[in-house]
Inverse folding.
């Protein structure tokens, strides 16, 4: 069974300080952390299409492992990949793609912004 839109949105928005935006129009949900994109979801496509950021060697690896994963659609093909979210792509794999993209973007933030984000996402402000 392919993932549904609500499950994807919930997972993406559950990441600390994640925000849903529509800078390219209503047909593409763009998820950002600290004003940096980490996921794009073409929610009107069937199957849904998810684009995420990855290290260049990971982009190639994912494409070799799964026929549903290809170069980033309208994105830098070296740093982004796009997955067709059909029933053959496991939910665990989709979650890993989203989580890895988020972590990559957070790791690239300036130290001060990264530390503020990490402090804000800790329970009880610890």
């Amino acid at each position: 069974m392919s993932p549904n839109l609500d499950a994807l949105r919930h997972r993406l928005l559950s990441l600390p300080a994640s925000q849903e935006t529509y800078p390219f129009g209503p047909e593409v949900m763009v998820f950002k952390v600290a004003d940096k994109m980490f996921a794009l979801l073409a929610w009107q496509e069937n199957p849904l299409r998810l684009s995420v950021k990855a290290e260049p060697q990971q982009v190639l690896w994912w494409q070799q492992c799964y026929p549903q994963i290809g170069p980033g659609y309208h994105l830098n093909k070296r740093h982004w990949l796009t997955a067709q979210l059909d029933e053959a792509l496991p939910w665990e794999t989709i979650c890993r793609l989203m989580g890895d993209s988020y972590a990559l973007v957070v790791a690239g933030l300036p130290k001060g912004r990264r530390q503020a984000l990490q402090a804000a996402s800790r329970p009880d402000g610890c």
